[in-house]
Amino acid sequence: MNLRKWVATTAGLSAALIVGLATPAMATPTGCTYQLSSSSASSTCTGGTGEHRIHVVQRHFSPEVGLIAIEGPWAPVGSVSFTRITPHTTISIWVETRG
User: Fold this and answer.
1) Which domain holds residue 57?
2) Most buried by CB count within 10 Å: which residue of 5, 16, 54, 64?
3) Among the listed residues 29, 35, 36, 83, the one whose alpha carbon sits nearest the alpha carbon of residue 52
4) Cα dihedral 59, 64, 65, 68 sign
């Protein structure tokens, strides 16, 4: 085998090995929903992989205090992220995800 063929073959095998060892990208959670009551908030994701958590922003009764940011713990898909909330006005709520 001449040197050029050997280099080309070695490069091709190295590329194939690298592609074969590459890990697939992690999928983020899907099918995420949240629930809100007067004293708690929670999120659940039913598909994909990774984790999720609930976020709530409330406005304090006293204007000097301002906004209150509340978040639940990270939870795997199929589990619930739960947090207690205050009796103040809820401004926004969302589910954060990570793969």
Assistant:
1) 26-98
2) 54
3) 29
4) positive
Count structural domains, the chain.
1
Asked if residue 59 is part of any domain, the answer here is yes
Q: pLDDT tens across 13-69, in order? A: 444 444 444 444 568 999 999 999 999 999 999 999 999 999 999 999 999 999 999
- Alpha helices (H) along the chain: 3-21
Give the domain CATH number at 78: 2.60.40
Range 69-75, long-range pairs (CB < 8 A, 24+ positions): 70/41, 71/96, 72/41, 72/42, 72/43, 74/98, 75/43, 75/51
d(CA 32, CA 78): 10
Give me 92's structure tokens.
């926004």
Encoding tokens for residue 66?
């301002």
